[in-house]
Every structure is written in structure tokens, then in C-alpha cells.
Amino acid sequence: MNNIPFLSLKDVTALHGAEIEAAVSRVVEGGWYLQGSENERFEKHYADYIGSPYCIGCANGLDALIWIFRAYVELGVMKPGDEVIVPANTYIATILAITENGLTPVLVEPKAETLEMDEDLIEARISERTRAICIVHLYGRLAYSEKIGALCRKYGLKLVEDNAQAHGCRLADGRKTGSLGDAAGHSFYPGKNLGALGDGGAVTTNDPELAAAVRALANYGSQKKYVFKYTGRNSRLDEIQAAVLDVKLKYLDADNAHRKEIARYYYEHIRNASVNLPERLSDEANAYHLFPILCERRDALQAFLKEKGIGTVIHYPIPPHKQECYRAWNGMSLPITEYIAEHELSLPIGPTITLEEAAQVVEAVNAF
Q: Are 279 and 113 in contact (CB under 8 A)?
């Protein structure tokens, strides 16, 4: 049996290595490394792909979310102390972006079978201070529902998407995540479905005023050289990353199709009473950034798979409300979120794993 890494970034890059090298060389030889034609090209292509009229590249996915909420504060849509409803089961960046802007996260439990925020619990958490619902398409799984959209319309709330893990995820009508709400943050961290060769991120939105504010905030607060409307920061996508992303964007749907083939094999062949798979979504509704499973003896399973040469990762062992940085929340009881944190394990999935390797993973999981 071959050793099967959780994800080999070297192999992922090699899939389109010649094009990526040519793109990097073009930038290096061109001598323009920030805010140039590569950014313009990628922003246009990614906006077209997502289905949003505006795309603004920035330094990383956390910044993308920070600038969305900061722009709403600068535009007077939100103010410090206002509340944002957000899933309790998420990577901490989603929460950090809210608290960074003096806003108050209202944590809502997921459904155990979907791992995404429970739409039936949201309305009871809406107060007179609620200004937005932030959904997270965690693991690549569609988190949007018509009920969530209807709640935003009913209460006049902004719908913000954390689309860091779901590039290429779609609704049945073809609309892509990242275009479903008022604004969306995207991460191009190397391990993502659309990954750069370093950090990178973007905001997509249908709101021209928000887009202009985000672009300024990520460029020191400047809309015109040496003129500063906001107290912003330096948070720009560099030309090399934009060029690399533009190459990889062409192959995103094909790479996602391969992920779905691997996921289909897992769903159809994993047969172990101690392993639970999350509810299977339709193919378009899951970009399969990750393939999470739940196991009562998670740590033992991880060790067993490691002995077999199979790499796995836990996403995420400590939920946000149990982190020291949010110690005021440490006494909160969120049992479903805590159960997921204690039992989740992600199996290898990506554009380079073969079906033969997936079969080895299944054989090992079933043997546990």
C-alpha cells in the first residue's frame, strides 16, 4: 500500500505546473508586482465565475470578511455592539472578523446531520440589534437555504457568506455560493479548492458602494493616491498570486468534479458501524473541500489510519466558544458543536488522489 497524504500541495501545483510557471515568469519579467493587470484580469474572471458584479482581491480570507463588516460599519449600516448571527461550528476566522469590528457574534448550533447552521434555530436568536446573518459553507457544503434568505428579507438583515471552503458550490438553479447574499469573503489559502501559492483572498458583492469601500479599506483607506477616506490597512492580493489563481480558476470545475468522484466512492463504500457520514448533499451543493466523518473513537481511528500510511486532519478540535481568546464564552453549552469538535475527522480528498488510493482509505476505515 502507498502512503496517502491528506493533501500534497506539491502534487496539486504540478497538475498545472507549466502554466503556473509561465504565469509567474510573466509577472516577474513584467516588473509590476502589485495592483496591476493580473489583479484586474483575475478579479474580472472570478467575478464572472461566481456571478457577482464586483470582486476585490485582498491579502487573505480573514481580511476579506473583516473588510465586509468594516465597510458596513463605515457606511453606517452597522455599528459597534450590533449583532451578527453566525454558526457556532466554524473555523475561528469567521468569528474573528465579527469581533474585530466591535460587532457581537450570536452563535447558533448546527444540525448534527448536516454540520451546517440549523436554520430552524435562527429566528429565535434575532433581536432588535441583529444586523446580519453570516453563513459558512463549511467543508464545502452548501449552508444557504431559502428559509435563511426569507429571514433576511423579513427582518431587513444583510446576508454575508463565508465562502472560504466552497469555491464552485452551487444551488440547484445554478447560482454559486459567493453570489447568494449581499457580500461574500473568499480564501485562496494554498489548500483550498482554488488555492494560491501563498495567502490570498477576495470579496464578492452586488453592492457598488460596499465594493468601493472594501477596495479603499484594503488599500490603506485610499480611493485616490495619497487621499485617505478611511483609516484602512494594507491588504492587497499580489500580482503573482493573482496570476497563479487565474490559471487554476480555469480548472476549478474539473478539479471539483474529481473531488466529487472520490466523495461518491467514500459514500458508497465506507461501511463501519462506528463511523458516521454527514448527510449526502446533491453533487452541485458540495464542493468537497473536505470529507468529514464522525467517529466515537476518533483519535484511535486517526492513529490507526496513520499506521496504515493515511493522512487525516481534525477540523476543528476546539470550537471558537472554547478558545482562550473568547474566554468569556467558555462556559457556554453548545453540545452539538462540541460533539462535532470531539468526533470529526477529515479523510484525504483533493484533485490528485486516485480512486485506487480512495479504495485503500475505505479499506482501512472499514477495517477499524
A: yes
